[in-house]
Amino acid sequence: MRAKKIAVLTSGGDAPGMNAAIRAVVRSGLQDGLDVVGVRRGYTGLLNGDVFEMNLRSVSDIIHRGGTMLYTARCPEFREKEGVQKAANKCRELGVDGVVVIGGDGSFRGARDLTDAGIPCIGIPGTIDNDIASSEYTIGFDTAMNTAVEMIDRLRDTTESHDRCSVVEVMGRRCGDLALQTGIAVGATTILVPEVEYDFQRDIIDRMRFTQKTGKKHFIILVAEGVGGVDALAKSIQEQTGIESRATVLGHVQRGGSPTLRDRVVASEMGNRAVELLKADKENRVIVMQNSKIIDLDITEALQMTRPFNVDLYRVAHKISI
Predict the structure, then answer these.
(1) Can you tell me whether residue 105 is helix, strand or coil?
(2) Torsion sign over Cα 21, 26, 31, 33
(3) Which of 14, 105, 113, 129 is catalytic?
(4) 129 is catalytic
(5) Would you place residue 74 in the very low, low, confident or very high pLDDT band (cuts 50, 70, 90)?
(6) Is 156 within 8 Å of 220 (Cβ atoms)?
(7) Where do the domains of the chain lie, and which CATH numbers do they carry?
(8) pLDDT tier at 3 (50, 70, 90 boundaries)?
(9) For 21-27, what is the mean pLDDT?
(10) Do the strands 285-290 and 293-298 form a parallel or antiparallel pair, or are they unpaired?
(11) φ, ψ dihedrals at 259, nearest 5°
(12) b/e string for 242-274 if b means 16 or more Cβ within 10 A?
């Protein structure tokens, strides 16, 4: 039976561009003759039936807004079989034939489980960490990088004025993409990521001392959240070099802000694709980008993938940052 009524929700951490994806799902669905409901606060809202009918004007003037108009939350109850079944029963009660889930790997596992419980789901990758193995790009990544670059460029002004070393932590618990690309963009002396082990003396102190000999007097050390320890690192650098060193954690500022053009366009394309799949009676699929093209994969298959770190780009960063 083809879908007649679909729901859309956002789950896990918020990411710029989620609103653009919601907008695309709603407008594509309505244009294709479907009824569309929004679910507030992710799977928690689905369990509680916190849904509302959406029309074309429900998503007016949101494409440029950060965060998510549907709000988001983490839902421990949904990790249990009973919680998933409760959500499936709620969907049937509401007449929902399919759900579009915007979020990360945890959200996709929930979408897979809900599909197994009889409610077709389609996943859209939304996370600033770019840490979904099946997709080379996730909604929010470009905006987060640009936000980090802007903040570090400002920090550099005071770092340079005082001949300091700034040790800056950006987000990315399991994935160093945000740190790597931001580090290249700001000319960081050293970039530390979870995927590559580092040696404090060789990769930080020796590089700083070498560049000092060439006339450099201020430094930026960029650290992914998954590496951590920026306060201790800054202290150790100052003790070893005598250069005043300060730690800065950019934190959740990276999640907010108006999404970039790329995030708006990718989110719109992915949202439309999700509706097309539900209309075609497809289920348990995740929309991904591979080789710069938007495709869809089986969620279970996608969750089993491993994403290689871009070692070549890391080597470029190492080579040009001296």
Answers:
(1) helix
(2) positive
(3) 129
(4) yes
(5) confident
(6) yes
(7) 5-140+259-303 (3.40.50.450), 142-255 (3.40.50.460)
(8) confident
(9) 98
(10) antiparallel
(11) -65, 150
(12) ebebbbbbbeeebbbbebbebbbebbbbbbbbb
